[in-house]
Amino acid sequence: MVIPQTFDLEVPRYEDIYEEDSDEEEVSRKRRREEEEEEEDSILPKKERWRQKREELLYTYYELSGYSSAVSLMMFDLAWKMSKDSREYLWWSIIGVTDQFLNCKISRDQYVSVCGTVQQHVQRLTNQSDVSSVNEIKIKYSNELRLDLYRHWTLMESLKHSAYTASRFRIWTSKGKKKLNEFLADMGLPLLQCKQNFQSMDMEIRRDVCGWIEVTAQKYGLEDISYSSFELQYGFANKFCAADLLSATFSVLTNPMLDTEAAFLKAQDTLNRCNEDLINSGYLSSN
Fold first, then answer.
1. Which residues pair with 234 in a beta bridge?
2. How many Cβ atoms are within 10 Å of 228's Cβ, its own excluded?
3. d(Cα 24, Cα 69) in Å, to the nearest integer?
4. Over the range 47-57, which residues count as b (16 or more CB within 10 Å of their CB) and which as e?
5. DSSP label at 12?
6. In degrees rounded to 5, what are phi and psi of residue 100?
7. pLDDT at residue 3, rounded to an integer
8. Which helix or strand (DSSP H or E) is residue 251 part of?
9. pLDDT in tens, the chain (287 residues)
10. Are 139 and 231 within 8 A, CB to CB?
11. Is 264 strand, coil or helix?
C-alpha cells in the first residue's frame, strides 16, 4: 500500500508506549547514580504522568478500530438458520472465535459473551442427537490456560514463548528469567519436571499443575492466565483443545516451504479431526 508522505498516520512514538526495562548488567554506573540521586517524590509523579499519557494515546489510536464477528461464527449462524448446522461446523466456529480472542482482536467481555452463545448451541446439538456412541463428536466446556501448546511441549518452554506470560515476566531480561524461576519454585515444581515433555511429567503433577498455576498466577499479576474455552473429544483417546488446534493450523498456513494455495489447502485439512498425523506435525512445527 502506497501512502502519501503528507498523510499523517498518527502512530504513537515507541518511547511513549513502551517503558525501557534493561538488564541490571546493561545499566551503566552513571545511570545508576542518576537514579539514586533522584528524589522518590519526583519519580512517582513522573511515572504516573507517563502512564496517563500512554493510556490516552492508546485510546485515541484504537478508538475507531475494531473487528467484526468471526467469519466462521457467521457461517455457522447461517447454517443454523438453514437447518444445516452440525457439531463439526460449531467446532470450526469455536476455533475462529478463539483466534480472535488470543490475538487480541476482541475484548475478554466480547469473548465471554460469544462463549455463552456457543454453549447454548453445544447444549442444543447435544440434546438433538445421541452422544453416547464412541465415534460421535463431543464438545465440552473447559477452562484453558494462556500457555501455547503446553500439552505438546515442556512447561518451561511454553511459559517462555507464550505471548501472555513472556510479556508480563519480561522473559528477555535477566530479572524476568529470575522471576519465572521464582514462579515455578513458588508452586513447588522441580525444574527437572518443567523441562521435560508435559506428557512425561509425573502423573500427580500433570493432574494438578494447571490448578497450581491459576492460584500462583494471582501473586505475579497474571490474573487473566485462564479463560473459558472448549474441547472436542472423538473416540476414547482423541481429544483436541481449540487453542492447540488453532496453533497447529496457523503453523501449517504460514509454512514458508509451501506456496499460498498449497498452504491454505493443507491448513484446511488440518482442521479435519481425522488427520491426526497432519495435526501432530502442526504441533511440532509450532514448537
1. 137, 238
2. 17
3. 44
4. eeeeeeeeeeb
5. P
6. -60, -45
7. 44
8. helix 242-253
9. 444 454 455 677 777 776 655 454 444 554 555 555 555 555 567 778 878 888 888 878 777 777 888 899 999 999 999 999 999 999 999 999 999 999 988 889 999 999 999 999 999 998 877 656 656 788 999 999 999 999 999 999 999 999 999 989 999 999 999 999 999 999 988 889 999 999 899 999 989 999 999 999 989 989 899 999 999 988 777 789 999 999 999 999 998 888 999 999 999 999 888 888 888 888 888 76
10. yes
11. helix
Decide if 229 contacts 143 (C-beta within 8 A).
yes
Q: Which residue has the cell 484453558?
A: 144
pLDDT of residue 37: 53
Burial class (CB in 10 A: 0-12, 13-18, 19+), 43: exposed
DSSP code at position 154:
B
User: Which of 173, 171, 174 lies closest to 163 in space, CA to CA?
Assistant: 171
Q: How far apart are CA 277 and CA 27, in angstroms?
A: 49
| Alpha helix (H) residue ranges in the chain | 14-17, 29-37, 40-62, 71-81, 87-102, 108-128, 155-161, 163-169, 174-186, 191-194, 203-217, 242-253, 260-270, 276-286
Q: Is 97 exposed, middle or buried (0-12, 13-18, 19+ CB in 10 A)?
A: buried
Determine the residue type at 21: D
CA distances from residue 118 to 98, 105, 184 in whole angstroms, order as listed: 12, 18, 34
CA–CA distance, 243 with 147 (Å, rounded to integer): 9
- pLDDT score at 250: 92
**C-alpha cell recorded at residue 46:** 513522573
Question: How far apart are the C-alpha atoms of 240 and 234, rounded to whole Å?
Answer: 8
Q: Nine-digit cell at 237? A: 483417546
d(CA 258, CA 173): 35
Separation between Cα atoms, residue 246 and residue 146, nearest integer Å? 13
